[in-house]
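Dear colleagues,

As part of the handover before I leave the project, I'm documenting each prediction I ran so the next person doesn't have to rerun anything. This entry is a single chain, and its sequence is reproduced below.
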Amino acid sequence: MWKAGLKWMFLIIGTTIGAGYASGRELWQFFGHESGLAILLFVIFFSSSCGVIMKISRQKESTHYLPVLRDIVGGKLTGIYDLMIFLYLFTTTVVMIAGSGATGQAFNFSYWWGIGIMVIALLLLFLKDINGLLTINQFILPLLLGGLLFILLSFTIDQELELFSHWDEQRNWAAAFPFTALNILPLIAVLGAIGNKVKGSQEIWIACCGSGLVLGVISYVYNNSLIQIADELLLYEIPLFAILKGYPFPMFVFIGILLWFAIFTTAASGVLGIVTRIRDYFDQPLSLLVAVTLATMIPLSTFGFSTLINYIYPVYGILNLYVLTRLLLYPLWSRMEKKET
């Protein structure tokens, strides 16, 4: 039970902590000053939504997201949101690939070297189908989360920051809605692909509550750190490197490698959602579908990492608010629909 629950928890976190989140760019885009309550609301909304998705996925014993999506948004809107999820997964995976290029540049490598390494790693990962992704999440994510939290807490202590000051100033609370909505859509795709592997409700409870709490703690500490260096963030495409600027170079290298793995796990989750969906139309090996998908993404990564996040993420955060509303009210409207039938 615990082992399976933690496996799904790491899958959820690995899907969420990508280039945008781990770099700090996504958090700063939505939160910033006066966002403590927003982050608390995010934890509640995120855990609840993941629980609903996993419950439906388990009931349907799904192998891709379409049956789950149909149950969430209803038959009339399924086609629209099917296309939106596909486009979301495609564009955000492009962001991850661009993020790998930006990470390479931070170490004075060519942008294309960073992209090439990402593409090759994804191709190798999917030679083992979905099991490769689940295995790497269990090994990489504890290191990533521990390293990221260590740096953020060290920065907090070094700068003598107060984690719980200004709680009377929470005017940005509404940011919880688009931020949660942004991160929920890819989880429908990824968790919809593993419904036939989830065995019990206890696994779901562990996965959803655990992932919400972990992401909430890291988001709060991370956002608090970024507030202190707000004036410097315009100079960095990856805000995390602004926090690291006073640290020894080995620490910079270690966190840079962990950041790349965060980008990698989210890119892998995005590719998983895409190829499990299109496999219904193309009866081809998973590795071939992955190769073709990545080949179409590489040219789009030239738009740049921060540019893609600044324009794409807020738009999806707003468009996905309907899905979030359906998930949060799922127990209510599902009872109403049963009464009508």
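The chain is about 75% helix and 0% strand. The chain has one domain: 2-158+172-336.

All the best with the project,
I.
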